[in-house]
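Lecture notes, continued. The same structure-token format from the folding unit now serves as the input rather than the output. Read the line below as a description of shape only.
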């Protein structure tokens, strides 16, 4: 098991709340990681951070074929509270095969992050035969809600 950081993770760019627009400005955060060795079970790729009061409204995962020997690889995308909050990998989604998926998990759509949150990918099931080259990208779309005044 290893932990990696995407290039986009530093320095973090954090947008401010919608300033009078009620948080209706759409933002996106993206993280890519180019592998140099086959991924294994429990590897973690830190992708990017989401700002406080960010509400996830969509996203996608794009990947090269990172399992050249089959469809065993499963990559989940989540945060410290739920490792598959945003995207849950399957044998038919990117990672084990090349492609794009925008199937946001039910737990992630419209999820409100109340604090600054690191989004990461976790290898939930190791590959049958892991590729030693390839790129993995995740992008989430979100709004930043203005803090509620009481």
């Amino acid at each position: 098991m290893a932990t990696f950081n995407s290039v986009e993770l530093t320095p973090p760019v954090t947008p401010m709340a919608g300033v009078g627009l009620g948080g209706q400005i759409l933002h996106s955060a993206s993280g890519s990681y180019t592998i140099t060795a086959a991924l294994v079970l429990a590897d973690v790729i830190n992708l990017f951070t989401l700002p406080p009061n960010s509400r996830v409204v969509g996203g996608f995962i794009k990947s090269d074929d990172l399992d050249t020997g089959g469809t065993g690889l499963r990559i989940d995308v989540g945060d410290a509270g739920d490792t598959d909050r945003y995207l849950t990998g399957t044998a038919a989604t990117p990672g084990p095969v090349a492609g794009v998926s925008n199937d946001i998990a039910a737990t992630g759509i419209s999820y409100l992050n109340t604090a600054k949150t690191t989004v990461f990918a976790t290898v939930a099931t190791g590959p049958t035969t892991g590729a030693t080259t390839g790129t993995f990208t995740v992008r989430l779309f979100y709004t930043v809600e203005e803090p509620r005044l009481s």
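Point for the exam: The chain has one domain: 3-144.
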